[in-house]
Structures are given as structure tokens and as C-alpha cells.
């Protein structure tokens, strides 16, 4: 799991490293940061030697990092053209210190400094240099960026983007690409053509990942991201933050996907009750059930309204289907027969293709109000429960809600724009009020734990998954994973579900292409993804297959 920090948390980390008991000199931290960029980009650009490089240094500490980078790449054989946007006296002490060193080593061969005043000639020369150089280092703005880009940064960014798009210029961003908000991923100039952000090929970020590097549109600007600890004391790197957020990694999921016990039976692997569907959306119910089957469920029961049952029975022999009641959709009276049998289920999933009839709302509430097993709520179950915060928050059972943006907007009462402005804050506030584990689906999907309020960001998945039915598969997957033999905690099950779902989507994109793979194919790819992860885990000797050859 990788910590995802805000700019304020980074400032605090920085401050503690320098001024607390650790006493690291500010210039040393900046030295480490600049050196890290020179080192890490070296491989990416196939060596600095013989390259012409433009290093653009802003007037904050991001610019100070740029001075250090220029010194290191010059020593590695590059010719560094350093553009300085601030006045010498404006810089922090540590930046001034590194600038003095650079001034002392300035020559025509390896290091040339320009104090950029924005004259016509300077713009012309900058354009020519950018056109003829191979690499540009963006040390203009990092975590201190706010608002929209101002001049001259805005035009320099425009120039770099234009030349990089036309030719063979590699753009390396320092900490955060200029014009990306490191907390939200929002970018400068999103509502206009000008003042747009810088598009980097690679970003080297310091101390911890920034949220803006994993949230769109910032993620698009960052390119390949590498994290460097820059010599921060280890306790600071791992210390929990006040409102923690993490990027999920495969190793986190591996903990949930423990191998099956060799003597286990179908009862060990969870009995999944999928209670959903209505007459014109039988497919959604089947897809949710298939997601559960492909995630390793022991038994999957599908309960649909009576008139939907003929479209489901026999479609997939491993799913046990029964029609409930008489109608095309569930009504409150149908709850009795489902409640009779659900005491034996490990988990219930409701919502995909359920329809939004008022009578169905009473049905959903009746199921939720009785019983103890965890419940996964998606799609129409969520639409029906919008406005039912008091009812849901007072339930005495574990609930996972898996809305996409529009469903989350209906539930939370926030507009889509308000959610997108700060999805972390919106998601955390919702979980606090509704007391549920939240899977806010999208690119990327966020999972928020009901127990801790921690946010987990999923790195897997791709735009090929933007297709009807993809979320139905996820519902069944999360239900099945929560009922695994190891009975993972509900938030871990949700995280594993979204990670595997995205990884299966990525496998489909590799095998089939970005267009046209189906939700059922994503579900079918899940066992292969689990197998690969299991193979990469050490399998205890006694669980190795007993095949002698
Ligand atoms: N562990 C760490 O974290 C370490 C961090 N380090 C480095 O420090 C960086 C943070 O430095 P920082 O705080 O000085 O901020 P930075 O990004 O340079 O920008 C501030 C300047 O930008 C300006 N400015 C702002 N918005 C603007 C706009 N829209 N358009 C134009 N200008 C704008 C703003 O001007 P103002 O708006 O205040 O007038 C101010 O002058 C961090 O990203 C990392 O690289 C390492 O050296 C060591 C370890
Ligand atoms: N661009 C994308 N990148 C990554 N994942 C995506 C992308 N678009 C969609 N997905 C994933 O596909 C699923 C779509 O779910 P949803 O919108 O509920 O579909 P449906 O309601 O049709 O079943 C979510 O898990 C979402 O995270
Ligand atoms: K930058």
C-alpha cells in the first residue's frame, strides 16, 4: 500500500524532517530531491551524456530542486540550459545556496543560466532551445501550485506542450507536473483553452505519492510516475496521516486471496444470495451471479421476480435460480420468502437491474431490516435508497454500497461537479454519515472503510470497461470475495474486488483490445488473474499439487 499525501501533509513531513528531532538540513533534502530526479530519469532517457536539456526553474522550492538537477546532469555529461523565473533574493535559503553553486560552475559548455525576463528575444531563444534539445525538466511548480497558471509559466508550459507534441522531446516533471493540483488532480485552465497544465512523460515525486498524481485529469499529465524517499527518515515515510489515503498494490490483495484449503468443500467458500433483476433487466442479474461464480463462490443462489425467472433459468447451470412472488418486479410481500432462506446465506447482493418501483423500495428495506449477513448494494438498490440515510445508517449489519458517480450524486445530494472537485472529501463525508463501506466507482475507483474512514484508490482498470454491465459483475465479485473461506474484513473484500475486477479488465484489454470486450469476458478473466497472483505467492508445501512425474 502506498500512502497518498496532500500538499499540507507533505509540508508537515518536510517540516518534521528538518525541524523536529531529525534535524535534516533543508539544503540536504533539496539536494536529495534533485539528485533523485537526475538518477531516476537517467535510465528513462537512456543517459544524460551528450544531451541538450532545458531546465525551467520556478520561484519556489520546486525551482530549487531544478538547480540541483542542473548540476547533476551537467556532471553526467549533459548540456544544461537553466531558465530561472524568480529573482535571486526571492528564493528560500536552500534554493539560494544551490543557485550560488550553479552560478559558480556556469560556463558555455555544460551549464548556461538565463534569468528569464520575458523579452521577445528571450522567448525566441527559448523556443529554439526547446526545439533543438532532447529533454526538458519541469521544475516550475510543484505542491505549491494553486489557481490557474499565470505568466510567464503559462506560456512556457504551452510552448513545451506544443514542441513535445510535435517532436522527440522528453518531458520530466519534478514532484508534480506544473499546473496539476497535487491534492485533487484538478488542472489549471480546465474551463478554457489557455493556461492548461504540462503533460509530462515521467514524474519523479518525493517522500510520498500525491493524490493529484492518481486522480484524473492530473494522472494523464504525470506520465510514468516514480517515487523517491529522498532520504526522509523511515518513521515519517510510514507514519499514518490524520485522514489517510492509500494506493492499492497487488501485495495488499494477495493477503485476501489465500489459497483454498485442500480439504475444503463448497460450504467453505460462501453461499451467495443475489436478489435482484426485473423483467426487462434479467441480464444484469445473471451478470452479477456470474461475477460471483467466477470469483470462486461455493454456491450462488439467484432470486429474481417470478416473471424474470424464465429468462434466467438454465442460462448458466451452476447458478441456482428461483422466481419469487408473481410479478415483473419485487414487492414488499415477496420479502417473506427471501427472508425465510437468507438466514443460510453468507452474503446478499441487491440492485443490478432491479428497477425503481416504489414497491421494490419497500422490498429492499424489508430485506435490509432483517438478518445479519453483510449486504452489497448496487445500482437500483442505491437509487431506491436515496434519501434513506437515517434508515441505512441505523442498520445493524455491514453494508457495502457500490455507486457510480451519478448514483453517488443521487445518494449524497451533491452535484457531479461538486463530487469531482474533491472526491476524497465527498466519499469520506458520505461514509461518516451513512455508516457504510463505500465503493465509489469510476476512474479511478475509491474504496472508503466504514470502520476507519481510510480511503483506498484502485490502480487497475481501463476505459474499455466503460460499458453497461461492468458494475454488475463487480457486485457479484465483491459479494463472493467477502464470503471467502478466510472471511476477509468487509473493506478488504471490497478492495480485493475492485482490484481484481480492474486487473481482469486489463487482461481483457491485452488479449482482446480496448474496444468491445464484454462484462462476461471480464468475469471469465478473473480466475486467470487469481491464478497468476497465487503462483506469485509462495504456496505452502502441503498445498502443492500431488502430481509426480
Ligand atoms: N518533502 C518535500 O515535500 C520536499 C519538497 N521539495 C520541493 O518543494 C516544492 C514545494 O515548494 P513550494 O512550497 O515553494 O512550492 P512550489 O511548488 O515551488 O510553488 C510555489 C511558487 O509558485 C507560485 N505559484 C503558485 N501558483 C501559481 C500559479 N498558478 N501560477 C504561477 N505561479 C504560481 C507561488 O507564487 P505565489 O502564488 O505565492 O505568488 C510560489 O512562488 C515541492 O513540490 C518539491 O519540488 C524539495 O525541495 C524538498 C523536499
Ligand atoms: N475509464 C475507466 N477506467 C477504469 N475503470 C473503469 C473505467 N470506466 C468504467 N470503469 C469501471 O467499470 C465499472 C462500471 O460500472 P457501472 O458504471 O456501475 O456499470 P453498469 O452500471 O453498467 O454495470 C466500474 O467498476 C468502473 O470503475
Ligand atoms: K514541476
From TrEMBL:
<feature type="binding site">
    <location>
        <position position="472"/>
    </location>
    <ligand>
        <name>(6S)-NADPHX</name>
    </ligand>
</feature>
<dbReference type="GO" id="GO:0046872">
    <property type="term" value="F:metal ion binding"/>
</dbReference>
<dbReference type="InterPro" id="IPR030677">
    <property type="entry name" value="Nnr"/>
</dbReference>
<dbReference type="InterPro" id="IPR000631">
    <property type="entry name" value="CARKD"/>
</dbReference>
<dbReference type="GO" id="GO:0046496">
    <property type="term" value="P:nicotinamide nucleotide metabolic process"/>
</dbReference>
<feature type="domain" description="YjeF C-terminal">
    <location>
        <begin position="249"/>
        <end position="533"/>
    </location>
</feature>
<feature type="binding site">
    <location>
        <position position="471"/>
    </location>
    <ligand>
        <name>AMP</name>
    </ligand>
</feature>
<keyword id="KW-0067">ATP-binding</keyword>
<dbReference type="InterPro" id="IPR036652">
    <property type="entry name" value="YjeF_N_dom_sf"/>
</dbReference>
<keyword id="KW-0511">Multifunctional enzyme</keyword>
<keyword id="KW-0479">Metal-binding</keyword>
<dbReference type="GO" id="GO:0052856">
    <property type="term" value="F:NAD(P)HX epimerase activity"/>
</dbReference>
<feature type="binding site">
    <location>
        <position position="284"/>
    </location>
    <ligand>
        <name>(6S)-NADPHX</name>
    </ligand>
</feature>
<feature type="binding site">
    <location>
        <position position="175"/>
    </location>
    <ligand>
        <name>(6S)-NADPHX</name>
    </ligand>
</feature>
<protein>
    <recommendedName>
        <fullName>Bifunctional NAD(P)H-hydrate repair enzyme</fullName>
        <ecNumber>4.2.1.136</ecNumber>
        <ecNumber>5.1.99.6</ecNumber>
    </recommendedName>
</protein>
<dbReference type="Pfam" id="PF01256">
    <property type="entry name" value="Carb_kinase"/>
</dbReference>
<comment type="function">
    <text>Catalyzes the epimerization of the S- and R-forms of NAD(P)HX, a damaged form of NAD(P)H that is a result of enzymatic or heat-dependent hydration. This is a prerequisite for the S-specific NAD(P)H-hydrate dehydratase to allow the repair of both epimers of NAD(P)HX.</text>
</comment>
<keyword id="KW-0521">NADP</keyword>
<dbReference type="InterPro" id="IPR004443">
    <property type="entry name" value="YjeF_N_dom"/>
</dbReference>
<keyword id="KW-0630">Potassium</keyword>
<dbReference type="GO" id="GO:0052855">
    <property type="term" value="F:ADP-dependent NAD(P)H-hydrate dehydratase activity"/>
</dbReference>
<comment type="similarity">
    <text>Belongs to the NnrE/AIBP family.</text>
</comment>
<feature type="binding site">
    <location>
        <position position="404"/>
    </location>
    <ligand>
        <name>(6S)-NADPHX</name>
    </ligand>
</feature>
<feature type="binding site">
    <location>
        <begin position="441"/>
        <end position="445"/>
    </location>
    <ligand>
        <name>AMP</name>
    </ligand>
</feature>
<dbReference type="InterPro" id="IPR029056">
    <property type="entry name" value="Ribokinase-like"/>
</dbReference>
<keyword id="KW-0456">Lyase</keyword>
<comment type="subunit">
    <text>Homotetramer.</text>
</comment>
<dbReference type="Pfam" id="PF03853">
    <property type="entry name" value="YjeF_N"/>
</dbReference>
<feature type="binding site">
    <location>
        <begin position="142"/>
        <end position="148"/>
    </location>
    <ligand>
        <name>(6S)-NADPHX</name>
    </ligand>
</feature>
<feature type="binding site">
    <location>
        <position position="62"/>
    </location>
    <ligand>
        <name>K(+)</name>
    </ligand>
</feature>
<dbReference type="GO" id="GO:0110051">
    <property type="term" value="P:metabolite repair"/>
</dbReference>
<keyword id="KW-0547">Nucleotide-binding</keyword>
<feature type="binding site">
    <location>
        <position position="178"/>
    </location>
    <ligand>
        <name>K(+)</name>
    </ligand>
</feature>
<feature type="binding site">
    <location>
        <position position="138"/>
    </location>
    <ligand>
        <name>K(+)</name>
    </ligand>
</feature>
<feature type="binding site">
    <location>
        <position position="353"/>
    </location>
    <ligand>
        <name>(6S)-NADPHX</name>
    </ligand>
</feature>
<comment type="function">
    <text>Bifunctional enzyme that catalyzes the epimerization of the S- and R-forms of NAD(P)HX and the dehydration of the S-form of NAD(P)HX at the expense of ADP, which is converted to AMP. This allows the repair of both epimers of NAD(P)HX, a damaged form of NAD(P)H that is a result of enzymatic or heat-dependent hydration.</text>
</comment>
<comment type="similarity">
    <text>Belongs to the NnrD/CARKD family.</text>
</comment>
<feature type="binding site">
    <location>
        <begin position="61"/>
        <end position="65"/>
    </location>
    <ligand>
        <name>(6S)-NADPHX</name>
    </ligand>
</feature>
<keyword id="KW-0413">Isomerase</keyword>
<dbReference type="GO" id="GO:0005524">
    <property type="term" value="F:ATP binding"/>
</dbReference>
<feature type="domain" description="YjeF N-terminal">
    <location>
        <begin position="10"/>
        <end position="238"/>
    </location>
</feature>
<keyword id="KW-0520">NAD</keyword>
